[in-house]
Amino acid sequence: MSDRDGSSFVWFLAGLGLGALAGVLYAPRSGTETREQIRAKAEEGREYMRQRAREVKDQASQWADKGREAVSSQKEQFRAAYEAGRQAYHEATTETGTTK
Questions:
Q1: What is the DSSP letter of 95?
Q2: What would you report as the CA-atom Rg of the chain, rounded to the nearest whole angstrom?
Q3: Angle at the Cα of 33 (from 49 to 29), degrees rounded to 5?
Q4: Separation of alpha carbons 20 and 55, rounded Å
Q5: pTM for the structure as a whole
Q6: What per-residue confidence (pLDDT) applies to 97?
Q7: Average of pLDDT values for 70-82?
């Protein structure tokens, strides 16, 4: 059983070496061209991520502004309702002649 495992590993290494050799022989570009292409794609990806980050930041800012406006509007409505209730209570207590 151990002889079989050892020979399988040798065949695996032989296949790995042949695959690497075939890859080098049939490569469509030289190493310099391949590195330049990889660098260009990485730069494109970096610029894309920067653009997306700016868009997300702008959108988050817009959502935060809308949230602030909604909270401000709710506070204003609550304040107006409170004042109306207070005024109504004051009028109701002064009409009946009772004091606070």
A1: H
A2: 37
A3: 120
A4: 43
A5: 0.48
A6: 61
A7: 94
